[in-house]
Amino acid sequence: MTFRVDEHASEIQEIDHFDGGIGWIAHPEERMKRASHALEKDGEVWVIDPVDAPGVDNLLTELGDVTGVVVLLDRHTRDAETVANRHNVPVYLPRFFDGVTEDLDAPVARFSDELSDTGIGALELVDSRFWQEAALYDREEGTLVVPESLGASSYFLAGSERLGVHPMRRLVPPRDALERFSPERILVGHGAGITTDAPSALEEALSTSRRRIPRLTAGMLWRLGPFSG
């Protein structure tokens, strides 16, 4: 599904503001709460899975000059080409992504286990015909970025969870890839990130993923049903 910028969009919601990074939700009224982020590293600004809207460049200017736009999920091209072309920078894709370049009318650069030469590590989360996803981890700053396998909008959450595994990944959560990290913050592609006690939120999301499927399903049915308002 492709989303376009609504010129009548409400004011963007700023989220996940920390030293060296910022996030925003361009359309706070959306149920999926599509979140975008920018990280500053050694004077370079990297914009991740952006949804464009009036006011986005004001947020980016707080960090510095944009060096590149990063797409971490094959279906999160969103407004990457628009932001990249406006700042005259490439769109950076994980090397294992296939078929995404055709969706971008902008210069493309590739990265493998490190985002350019930033020192920010990159890891493969999913590589299949239907889902290609990478995550970023800045060990120095303690920032973990997971665009889709984890989320914090209501669609992802069961009960009192602060962070949840994507419904399509609950049976096989990304434990092997992510449980080794003890991040200071977790930034996600849907909803505001986790900035307090992030390691426990991550451990809980991964370890309880399967057994909370019934609760997640019940919550979805309630929101979609006649009592959802």
From TrEMBL:
InterPro entries according to UniProt: RibonucZ/Hydroxyglut_hydro
Top-level lineage group: Archaea
Name listed for the protein in its UniProt record: MBL fold metallo-hydrolase
Upper taxonomic lineage: Archaea, Methanobacteriati, Methanobacteriota, Stenosarchaea group, Halobacteria
